[in-house]
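Handout, section B. The chain below has 526 residues.
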Amino acid sequence: MTDFKELYLRKGSVAQDYIDIAQDIFVEINNYFKIIDCNLKFCTLMNKPRAELFGTNILNSIHDRDKIRFQNIIRNALLKKFKEGLTRLDLVDYKQRVTSISMKINPILDDNNNIVGLLLKFSSFKLRTEDSEVNTLFMSIYNSLTDLYTIYGTDTKIKINHVNSSLTKILGYSKEEMTGKHIADFLVKNKDQEENIKTLFKSLEETGKFAGEVLYQAKNGEEIPIHLSISSLVHNGKVIGSLGIGRDMREQKRLESENKSFELKLQNQSKLVEFGMMLQGVAHNMSTPLTSIKSSAQLQHSRIIKFKEKLAEKYGQDAEVNENLNDIMKFFELIDQSVSKLSKIIKNMMSKSRDQQSTTKEALNLANVMEQELEFLYANQFFKNKIEKAFAIQPDLPIIYGLYSDFSQSFVNIIKNGIDAMWDTPVKKMDIRMYYENDYIIIKIKDTGKGIPQDIQDKIFEPFFTTKPKFKDAKGEEPNGTGLGLDSVLSLLKPYSASVTFESEVGKGTEFSIRVPVSQNQKELN
């Protein structure tokens, strides 16, 4: 069989055609790594015509991790110090895709037997795999992993040389984009994660292993929690890289968050029930003395009227005495009126307490629920005295079937958020509208607060997300929060197929809209 070197050196048309149609890649370079000639296979790899490749540097086609080694091999070859045989390298094509090849070098000599260039032959290279029990077991495990599990392999410098489809899917990068990059390039780097990253690489350096939770940074900016286990890969007693296996923790984190949110809601509900029972006891105990005060005031009022009449019969009319007696009568009338108002408040308090504790659905007019909640909110002096209020509540809303507490808590949570948002704004105004339209009860709650920035609008319904300071961090009477208010609204109204939307503009305020379908929530009334 004719040697490719001899065939190439003949430079005949037949020889050139033969080299061009060969499956291997041929490149001739000079002593300065510049391309002098190449075959069509190399032109296809680089997606350029032969003329454009002449004079370019062959190093542009060698993978970064192999460039130094390639340069050393070529320099030794030019000094006639190279060894016969194949060298494994990675080429990079015009799309930065990696191709593993084996390289064979043939020197090109002048008439004086001096090396004036090198003929490089690149052949496709694949690792030979044996169908051993270990390999079969590994491939079975690898193929059975779900999308939850990510796998990557690295070289000794912790640069990625292999990723599975699950990792590329989770992060949004292609295999080509990840290959050759350091694993740290895909980790979230902030103050919270700084210590964790240091621990990871220190553990790898000292023990060759790491197990713990890290945050990956996806291409779209999402921070993805991954439980990562890394172990060194050892072959013939020598570390050749590392293998990392990770598990996507997003679903687990979501469930943990929901469970924690649910536990807090149960605790709050238990506290509300306990507080409601105590409130009912206090209200009941207050009713008796208030009844006595009211009766006494009415009795004294009657006695003064009779006393006034007797004085007139015995001594005649006296303007000054009558004026004084009328003032005393007005005082007892005021006591009577005040006790009546207080009794009404206590009655409403007991009614609300019973309604909040109810676990049985009942017929509700949501207008009455809203009005009762607004009446109690007047106990908040900021709401009562500092906020301009405008209410337009349709009184004859259709009756629906539900739990009083589901709607009362939802209304209050949104209203209180609006109150808190206006804490330090120059304009403080709240508009609340309720009306019936096209089989929906519509509730609109609008404030002139700070507004919700665009970059966090998709997070406000997440449990524990809040822009308010925690209780311990709040200054003075500054509003604080737990981040469960709006999450509770969605949970409470979900059984009624109600929708909750909002529109917000920073510096102008926010309007929440609740739409409760009527027909489907009246079925149990029929």
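Note. The chain has four domains: 4-124, 133-248, 254-355, 358-526. Compare this with the example in section A.
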